[in-house]
Amino acid sequence: MTSVLPSSRFLRRHLFGLVCATLAGTSGAQHVISPSQAEQFARQSFPAYLQFLSMPADAAKPADIQRNAAWLQEAFEARGFRTQALPNEGKPVVYAELPAGQPGRKTVLFYMHFDAQPVTPSEWQTDPWTPTLRARDAAGQWQTLPLSKLSTDPIDPEWRVFARAAADDKGPIIMFLAAIDALKAAGQLPEVNIKLLLDSEEEKGSPRLHSVMAAHQALLQSDGLIVYDGAMPASNQPGVSFGNRGSIQLDLTMFGPLSAQHSGHQGNVIPNPALGLSQLLATMKDQDGRVVIPGFYEGVHISEADRQQMAQMAPPPGALAKRLGLARLTTFAANPLEAVQYPSLDILGLSAGQVGAKAANAIPATAVASLNIRTVPETPPARMLGLVRQHLVDQGVHLIEGEVPTAQERSQFSRLARLTMLAYPSTSTAARVPMDSPLARWVLQGVKAPSRIEPEKVRMIGSTLPMSGAVDVLKMPYVVVPLVNADNNQHGADENMRLGNYLEGVRTIAAMLTTRLP
Amino acid sequence: MTSVLPSSRFLRRHLFGLVCATLAGTSGAQHVISPSQAEQFARQSFPAYLQFLSMPADAAKPADIQRNAAWLQEAFEARGFRTQALPNEGKPVVYAELPAGQPGRKTVLFYMHFDAQPVTPSEWQTDPWTPTLRARDAAGQWQTLPLSKLSTDPIDPEWRVFARAAADDKGPIIMFLAAIDALKAAGQLPEVNIKLLLDSEEEKGSPRLHSVMAAHQALLQSDGLIVYDGAMPASNQPGVSFGNRGSIQLDLTMFGPLSAQHSGHQGNVIPNPALGLSQLLATMKDQDGRVVIPGFYEGVHISEADRQQMAQMAPPPGALAKRLGLARLTTFAANPLEAVQYPSLDILGLSAGQVGAKAANAIPATAVASLNIRTVPETPPARMLGLVRQHLVDQGVHLIEGEVPTAQERSQFSRLARLTMLAYPSTSTAARVPMDSPLARWVLQGVKAPSRIEPEKVRMIGSTLPMSGAVDVLKMPYVVVPLVNADNNQHGADENMRLGNYLEGVRTIAAMLTTRLP
């Protein structure tokens, strides 16, 4: 999973102002696990962690997945969990559950994934499936340390374990096991019924997770879903995001002549579908980047409090623009954080004929634009599709139902186009949990407990989450709690897990498990 | 060469109205060669024609070209021409000349080409390099006739010789030889000094012909140039075109962020270059297809007489639209013939990101449109480039000079683009000979002579001619006189030459050669 807090590098400098802020409803979280206890149980978990990381887990390889899944079932069953391998075309998803210590407790489903991005070993300093321990020397260079230091020396929070999936997302799974062990040793019982769903294909976009969930809906049903995935803010301070935009892709094909026509013979004589397409696209947004399709933003309301919070956290003007090589950002929203709270419309691709030296002197027969609408919970996909359709009709376009226009349609309508919405997995659902909801308050309480630092609270991230479309099957509120260092190189070479984050992660999970969800 | 009279199938039905029209200045053309004489010398030329067609002449194969060139030199020298192989990187262009019968005569350069389109033999009924004689039976099916019929039977005008290059453009070369033979036999001396330029790479767009011409400018200098290439009107009636549009390609690249950006994280936050490009393109033309870039049509004047002639010849409304699958044509000009008398602007291609299933959820870093401007003599390429540049600047675009924007440009300008004009051979020159000029009158007189049918006169065709850019080197007026049947399948399988056109072609060439150019 990519960073769920993409703007967080800009939040850091504003964080000190937030540390002292009081958040209603997050008082009194337990310190069930002290830093020294965390270190003890983290240390105890390292052999399992190293073993787990030694097992390649390429989501494309069923044998990898099966081996990892079996390992996980054994690890959770050894801690009293009931487990189940949920069938998924040879790449089982692992389910595990443990009841709370008391009856009448709420149930939380924890989502993590054990599959990993594919690797290019030649780009790595050491073999990606052979974990190594490293620390930076005084010159800032990574030096390998003997793994034995993990059992002999006090843990330096700056040490890192290098291996594929060390952070994304095997690290959090082992932190979870360590937290369970720590609670047991402390005689603490979980204050929530625990369910775990450990995905086997997240790095491939969880293409079948929705089917797996649909087939086990009763088993998975819970009062909320926590996603332990993604990277923390660059500050390594706690952060939580309460929602994500959804995404749909609309392909707009404009039809011209039956076949490409010589631009000398027909130039001036017949309309050009590439121009027609450009003219339609030009009607969709204004110069400030605001979508002008009627009704596009209807129902979206951002509270004054949220707006102020985002204004405080927003990056300094120009910093993002400079990094991206732009003279300015779009100006329709007050700042980038606020901008992604609205639905957006972008052109992902344009295609007609050929360009440059490959261009034929021809008026193309068709021109295609692929549009991406990022939705918010208030602007569901079907409505957005309807609005775009209506806007095109308002521009005099006849939208065909078939694959290509019929002869009748060609003879009757001078602006012919097809608009199609791509199916799942190109469609992903928006979701947002109110920050003052019970689930959100419970999360914030747990996340704040170990460090007493007020978490960065992101109302909604601009991107989707890989499994959000599938999660939609369960109709559950969900919150994303990243636990790993921002600079973990996930998806790239030399992926690593910072042990300071590992220790804090164990404490955070333990705190959440021992906080009662109202 | 593709048809130089693209609209001519529509002209046919209006032709009868023109047959009786009187054209000033075309009186008194000689009937130097009667139909029976034409048949005699056509018949005599067939063995050479069949031999010439048996020699593959793929412009990509130097050995083919060399063999054909040597054959041509021999054929022309046998008729008293001085010939010369003009060096052209292994693919010689053949030059031949024969002085007029009297001193003080004007000089005409005749352009034809002996290279041929490549073939896909599997698509042909018979081997493309083995000429066959065929006629349609009562059921309309082609039946092969023995080649011996060409020497034993009277020639049926509907017979056809099938072979690659039979029509495009070896046929006219052999007709030329037959016309010379006929004149000699009749004791007629040419009334013009004859020069011939027989191109070897026309089907490849004559990429080096301009260099060959530049190297032999004095040799080739003449009072006018006649191009015997392209197909006659579908009516098989005489037709002449007096000009062609030019063509330039402008590539417009719009710059967005330094690299493609996640459309979830940045959607709404940063401008999208594909949208920016669409918005710019949309400003270039109105809904009628009229270019609204200021000054685009400046200097273009179509006389009322020309306008009326085109209105008479123009296709019935809807016929072209129907054939192309369009509800309507553009409406800014009165009819398609008039439309191509103006410069045009078309989008040949659009490219940004990817579309459809390949689309990434990313805001592309750049978006490119390739534009094609068809120029007319009054709107030269440099001026058109300047107008487009100025129009873009007027839209707030900063046009960079380099390949990519500098950091300074990126920080300073919010609408950054590059506009480049592709070099020759993507640039082709417009040319037009006034219909009342001496050369035009001479051509019309000769073309009308055999049949007494008033030729279809096309002021200017919409397309370029493959060699027009090169011809521009010679700064000579030129006129295109097509001699072969419209349905000759040039460039495709089963290319063929209708012998009725062959006979008329011999007479037409003879008539032109024996008419004095004032």
From TrEMBL, chains A, B:
<dbReference type="GO" id="GO:0006508">
    <property type="term" value="P:proteolysis"/>
</dbReference>
<dbReference type="InterPro" id="IPR051458">
    <property type="entry name" value="Cyt/Met_Dipeptidase"/>
</dbReference>
<protein>
    <submittedName>
        <fullName>Acetylornithine deacetylase/succinyl-diaminopimelate desuccinylase-like protein</fullName>
    </submittedName>
</protein>
<keyword id="KW-0378">Hydrolase</keyword>
<dbReference type="Pfam" id="PF01546">
    <property type="entry name" value="Peptidase_M20"/>
</dbReference>
<dbReference type="InterPro" id="IPR011650">
    <property type="entry name" value="Peptidase_M20_dimer"/>
</dbReference>
<keyword id="KW-0645">Protease</keyword>
<feature type="domain" description="Peptidase M20 dimerisation">
    <location>
        <begin position="243"/>
        <end position="394"/>
    </location>
</feature>
<dbReference type="GO" id="GO:0008233">
    <property type="term" value="F:peptidase activity"/>
</dbReference>
<dbReference type="Pfam" id="PF07687">
    <property type="entry name" value="M20_dimer"/>
</dbReference>
<dbReference type="GO" id="GO:0046872">
    <property type="term" value="F:metal ion binding"/>
</dbReference>
<dbReference type="InterPro" id="IPR002933">
    <property type="entry name" value="Peptidase_M20"/>
</dbReference>
<keyword id="KW-0479">Metal-binding</keyword>
